[in-house]
Amino acid sequence: MLKTKIITIALLFFHLLSFGQKKISEISKEGYLQDFDFIVKLIKNQHPNPFRFITESDFDKKTKAIRVNLVKNPTLENFYLSNPLSLINDSHSDLIPDATLFDELTRNSTFFPLITDVYDNRVFVNQYATDIPSGAEILKVNNVKVKDILEQIPNKVDGDVQASTQKNFSQYISFIFPKAKEFTIEYTENKNQTPKTIQLKAINYNRFYYNTDKTILPFDTLSASSGISGYQLDNDTFIVSIKSFSLSEEYAYQILNNLFTLIKEKNIKNLIIDIRNNNGGSLSNIPLFYSFISNEKSFKNIYKYATKVVTINVKENLVDENNRLANASDIISSDNFMKQRFDKNETDNFYYGNNRLDEYYVENYPQDKTAFTGKVALLINNNTVSAATYFAYMFQLNKRGQIIGQETRSCSNFTTAAWFLNYKLPNTESIIALPRSEVFFNTIANKDNHCRGVIPEHTITADEYQKGLQTYQDAELNLALKVIKQ
């Protein structure tokens, strides 16, 4: 969604959290290390498949190096940056800081004065600004190269996915220089221009948050707030933007039915589906949405749950949906749920979901009566994740049309977006969210130790992305229009 893209951490921090009275000064070095070590324990003993993309020995080596950095600089900001979850390349394993501690942190820290966007490992000013031209590329901050800064930001990607756009540069540069009075910024308006340097004063969090409302991208804020929206682009082209698959089936069907009835009435020839910045939702919703663009009277909707860990092995610090410590009854109930719905396959030691698991599962899904059967293009990007990737996968599998944009942040053949276990760390009071299962977009658990997201056939360059910012144009949408009319 809009704020999630611009200031991801801040909004995630303020939901499903308790409001304890602990202060940052009360957290000792040992406290940070204790929480860090507990995260490592969780990964090894509770994640459904932690070493799919990294060997345990490599994980141990990299974890040791990160821990050494935390020992040298035991601060709350560095604890957030020193996150071992990023090492296993699972975009759904998450660290959600405590709201009260984060509020104290933001009140006593300074922030980077510009909102930025990352595209293809380059950083651009995504703000209507006066000090630096909108769309200018930032090359260095405080004499540190942007490339080196981006490498410090933990990845939230699956497998080998290349997705630099998901990195929140402005937020993390503020964490890297939390007490800066000013920032020395080297930038250029285009790659052929001699770089310029400017010094800008740091700002407080209130101003930083306010700046997020002055961004240029994304242009479509209506669908970001409503979930689905659509409008006519020209005489024969319509766009439907879908920013969430978490909507109720009843609401989603009503909106989609209205839109596709309108598309049919207007005799539209070309349709663009935009799922950029879509953070997913319910897998059972995906075939419903796809049924409105299916060319076939019915299509295959196949996904399979699998996990290596069917029970709760780590019980300490486990919290329920109300953020209260889980009791023995909660744990027994959760374990029984999994045991009744997963059967072990002795040949590969995976537990596979059985028929009890998903009552909404329909393998041969029917085309909707108002389905559009003309030309369709799909827009995706690095923030197309989770169930949204399943939609892109289904679109690609059925050869429904051309895909434009960037690689999705989730793997093209599976995701870990199922149920979650939440643990509250005792010192930083952060919440660790771990998935309980992998979900494969077929009937067999994929054993590959590599994966990529859905990769588009057409993409814009970073220079074209920059030009779009500078001219207030959606360069990816313009490319989609060009492709679909060819």
Question: Can you walk through the features of this model?
Answer:
The model is unreliable at 1-20 (pLDDT under 50). The chain is globular and about 65 Å long. With 486 residues, the chain is of the alpha+beta class. It has helices spanning 2-6, 8-13, 29-46, 56-72, 76-81, 99-107, 146-152, 169-176, 205-211, 222-226, 249-265, 286-290, 328-341, 387-397, 462-471, 475-485, and strands at residues 94-96, 116-119, 122-125, 137-141, 144-145, 182-188, 196-201, 228-234, 237-242, 270-274, 298-300, 304-307, 318-319, 342-345, 350-353, 364-366, 375-380, 401-405, 414-415, 420-424, 431-435, 438-440. The strands form 5 sheets. Strands 2, 3, 4, 5, 6 and 7 form a 6-stranded antiparallel β-sheet that branches. It has 16 helices and 22 strands. The longest helix is centred in the first third of the chain and has 18 residues, at 29-46. 32% of the residues lie in helices and 20% in strands. A hairpin with a 6-residue loop joins strand 20 (420-424) and strand 21 (431-435).
Largest sheet: 6 strands, antiparallel
> What share of residues are in beta strands?
15-25%
The coarse silhouette is: globular
Number of strands: 22
Number of helices: 16
Rg on CA atoms, Å = 23 Å
Specify the structural class: alpha+beta
Give the overall average pLDDT: 92
